[in-house]
């Protein structure tokens, strides 16, 4: 239920070309710190948009592969160990921070992100349509919440990731994510403390 089909970029668009550049860089064995830097002459918002969608796809896949181990019983609270608890809040059903199980939180999170990235007013895909003024704020919130997925997976389910033989993939994805959010200061450093 938490797995979503990949959001794709339309071939022939500028974002598709940026996505191809990012993917080629990742597969070339380059230093991930260098890969996340904004290519010369490119729009910062386009670069962030491409990465937010790509991270959503990758992290959703990571969680989807190990979600059978993350149950209401094993994870009754969305947390990152004993010290960190994450509560859900949105602008509709949960107006106040609410304690949820990890699977419920993940489901709410993936639905919420999918709704945002499919909203043309927030993530415009047509050439010449500007990003809204609050675009980077929205991306910061998305990336902060996606970081919490890494926290939960690493602290509560990494043994399952190892048993599946997926730790190299998860570690590379996390490293790419981490360098990207640090490069553009997109997640508050206090949020990063659990890892």
Q: Could you walk me through the main structural features you see in this protein, from its secondary elements to its overall organization?
A:
- The chain has 195 residues and is mainly α.
- The protein has one domain: Up-down Bundle (Butyryl-CoA Dehydrogenase, subunit A, domain 3), CATH 1.20.140.
- It is 53% helix and 0% strand.
- The protein is built from seven helices and no strands.
- Helix 3 (44-66) runs antiparallel to helix 4 (102-117) and helix 3 runs antiparallel to helix 7 (167-183).
- This is MOB kinase activator 3C.
- One of its GO terms (molecular function) is kinase activity.
Keywords:
kinase; disordered N terminus; MOB_kinase_act_sf; 7 helices; kinase activity; 53% helix; Butyryl-CoA Dehydrogenase, subunit A, domain 3; globular; 195 residues; mainly alpha
Give me the secondary-structure topology.
Elements: H1 14-27, H2 32-35, H3 44-66, H4 102-117, H5 135-156, H6 158-164, H7 167-183
Helix pairs in contact: 1-3, 3-4, 3-5, 3-7, 4-5
Q: Over the alpha carbons, how many angstroms does the gyration radius reach?
A: 17 Å
Proportion in β-strands: under 5%
Number of helices: 7
User: Strand count, sense and closure of the main sheet?
Assistant: none
- The CATH architecture can be given as Up-down Bundle
Separation, N- and C-terminal Cα atoms = 27 Å
The mean pLDDT is 88
Helix content: 40-55%
Overall number of structural domains: 1
Segments where pLDDT lies below 50 for 5+ residues?
1-6
